[in-house]
Amino acid sequence: MLAIAICGSPRKDGNTEHLLRHCLERLASRGATVELLPLRDKRIEPCRGCSTCARRKDGSCGIEGDDFPPLLARMRAADAIVVGSPVYFGSATPQLMALLDRAGYVSRQNGGFFSRKLGGPIVVARRAGHNFTFAQLLFWFMINDMVVPGSSYWNVAHAREPGEVAKDEEGLATVERFADNLAWLGGRLGTP
How many domains does the chain have? Predict the structure, then answer.
């Protein structure tokens, strides 16, 4: 199983990235091939609603000149997609949402190529906003007909200062269980 984690945080080695790496390490220990895709150095234009992807029918987007095409290619190749974001004023980062909006639109206009892929969101916040952001990201998985396993709690953690997420034992345990469930479900479904 190829599992990718997309990090929507603009911070290198921040708490979101740390938590996603924790998830990927757990998946790798269960036999998955893993890859982290940070968005911090990527330029992703927001969807323009131009419908070029619907007219082309080749799985490409009409916006050219940014970093979207290779990211979409990695998403299409993956069996499992995990997305992570810090909470910014009660929602996911604009970089992550630009990627997800475009990828989802292209998929839905081209046969729904995300359908039945596995995945789910992971969210980090200093104090609050987890549930709104978690739901926002979860909606993307649901509308794309993807399979999201549960965990022992929502995949959220508390942190502010760099590395602080490593102290959130419940958050780490929740992400571990989520990763275990992704690996288990991939095995049950026969995901290579």
Answer: 1
Q: What is the pLDDT of residue 192?
A: 60
> What tens digit of pLDDT does each residue of 141-192 get?
999 999 999 999 999 999 999 999 999 999 999 999 999 999 999 999 887 6
Show the domain range for 169: 2-189
pTM for the full predicted model: 0.96
Hey, is 25 helix, strand or coil?
Answer: helix
- Give the CATH number for residue 156: 3.40.50.360
Q: How far is CA 41 from CA 31, 66, 68, 95, in A?
A: 29, 11, 12, 10
For strands 156-158 and 118-125, give the pairing: parallel
The C-alpha atoms of residue 84 and residue 92 are separated, in whole angstroms, by 8
